[in-house]
Design brief:
Elements (H helix, E strand, L loop, with lengths): L1 H15 L7 E2 L5 E7 L2 E7 L7 E9 L6 E7 L2 E7 L5 E9 L3 E8 L4 E8 L6 H25 L3 H24 L15 E8 L8 E10 L17 E7 L5 E4 L2 E4 L2 E7 L4 E11 L3 E11 L11 E6 L4 E6 L5 E2 L6 E7 L5 E6 L3 E3 L5 E3 L3 E6 L5 E11 L2 E12 L1
Parallel strand pairs: 1-9, 18-27
Antiparallel strand pairs: 2-3, 3-4, 4-7, 5-6, 5-8, 8-9, 10-11, 11-15, 12-13, 12-16, 14-15, 16-17, 19-25, 20-26, 21-22, 21-26, 23-24, 26-27
Helix pairs in contact: 1-3, 2-3
Bound molecules: copper (II) ion.
The site of copper (II) ion has 6 residues, from loops.
């Protein structure tokens, strides 16, 4: 009977426990999301909120090029405004207000663009299991003290009854204490399929120098509904890499979520020809995905793209390359000191490596990036010519250095 009671309480707790989410904003745990807004790389930092209802601190970290731009923010009906100033990169703070814990949406709006970012506020109150554990141990202590007192007065039946109830409380508290580390874990859903991605480019054949929109619509392959459950993956909902086939054009941007399952970025091409769009994202509980599409840009045929530095590697073997940035003031971008994106000539292969060794977390929670060298370990499955782009942040500017990579048999 006691065991049934204990199991019953455990089941109830499993049902009421809040599922873990990749978008959780809790006290002391900030959420970082990269967004490309009006051509600027912006890191949206939603600070862990100390209490609900209470203030929600949102920082927009703008990277160069920064233009004069007004961004309206809204959450839970509270609004704020941030005004970027031309050539003034850095942190632009805003204070909003949240009424309660649970799922929320942060809306960012400019005169031309809208993005809606889902996140979850974890209310900083004790979890149910904590109340049961502490309550159970507290009750045990009181009851056992009472039992001892009754025993001392030779009231044996009372002592036995109090002691028995005390033992039950102890069992419940101990059981919950043992299982509680697992209560917050969401059951992994192995059946969730990859999203199907549909690329739309508007206009469908952009011209050189003309702004166009790249849109990926993500659809759940099983239900046909928008796949709108993206986890935060390397500090963004989606990483979009758009390159020209000849490697001369490269943009790594972070599309806006303009609708359920819809991600959009605006770009301007500088050369005609075939282009490739690769999007990297991760559905919650479904693992990472890389999807791609192609489109053409019209205009005069450009001269062959120049890739100044060249590396030569053997195929099929990991190699570590060292890049000297010449800077000791590197900043973390997308949670890493450096990124190396690689692509083969026809675009069927896209690789993304990170430099992590140059970064350390300091005791106050900030990230220190050492320089000036960045190291990347990469391997290429097949021989051939590849393009590589090293990216890092310095003085709130994203630096991109193209490389040509010859992979030998
Ligand atoms: Cu990215």
């Amino acid at each position: 009977m006691f065991i049934r009671l204990v199991l019953g309480i455990s089941v109830v707790l499993l049902v009421v426990a809040t599922p873990a989410s990749a978008h959780v904003v809790a006290a002391g745990a900030d959420l970082q999301l990269a967004q490309t807004i009006a051509g600027s790389e912006v890191t949206v930092v939603i600070r862990g909120t100390p209490e609900v209802p209470g203030p929600l601190y949102v920082d927009l970290i703008a990277h160069q090029p920064v233009h004069d731009l007004t961004i309206d923010l809204a959450v839970d009906g509270s609004v704020g405004t941030v005004r970027f100033q031309r050539d003034r990169p850095g942190t632009y703070p805003a204070v909003l207000h949240v009424r309660d814990g649970g799922p929320h949406e942060l809306r960012l709006e400019t005169s031309a663009e809208i993005s809606v970012l889902p996140f979850r506020v974890q209310a900083p109150r004790p979890a149910t299991w904590e109340l049961v554990v502490y309550g159970g141990f507290g009750t045990t202590g009181l009851l056992l003290a009472a039992a001892i007192a009754a025993g001392a007065r030779s009231r044996r039946p009372t002592a036995v009854a109090l002691g028995g109830v005390g033992v039950v409380a102890l069992i419940i508290a101990a059981t919950v204490a043992v299982v509680s580390p697992h209560l917050g874990d969401r059951q992994r859903d192995p059946g969730r399929p990859n999203a199907q991605a549909f690329l739309t480019v508007t206009p469908d054949r952009p011209a050189v120098g003309e702004e166009f929109t790249v849109r990926f619509d993500l659809v759940d392959g099983a239900t046909g509904q928008p796949a709108d459950d993206l986890a935060v993956h390397h500090a963004a909902l989606t990483h979009l890499v758009v390159t020209s086939q000849d490697g001369g054009f490269f943009r790594h941007v972070h599309p806006l979520r303009t609708d359920r399952g819809r991600l959009e970025a605006r770009l301007t091409a500088d050369r005609a020809g075939r282009y490739l769009a690769h999007a990297e994202f991760e559905r919650t509980d479904a693992g990472g995905q890389l999807v791609s599409g192609r489109f053409d840009v019209s205009g005069p045929v450009p001269p062959e793209a120049a890739h100044p530095a060249a590396w030569t590697f053997p195929a099929g073997r990991p190699v570590t390359v060292q890049v000297d940035t010449g800077s000791t003031g590197l900043q973390s971008w997308l949670g890493m000191p450096g990124h190396l994106i690689t692509r083969d000539r026809d675009g069927t292969f896209l690789g993304h490596a990170h430099e992590q060794s140059a970064m350390t977390s300091t005791s106050d929670g900030t990230v220190a990036v050492h320089g000036p060298e960045l190291r990347f370990t990469v391997s290429f499955p097949r021989p051939g010519r590849y393009f590589g782009w090293v990216q890092y942040a310095e003085d709130f500017r994203i630096v991109t250095v193209p490389h040509l990579i010859e992979v030998t048999p």
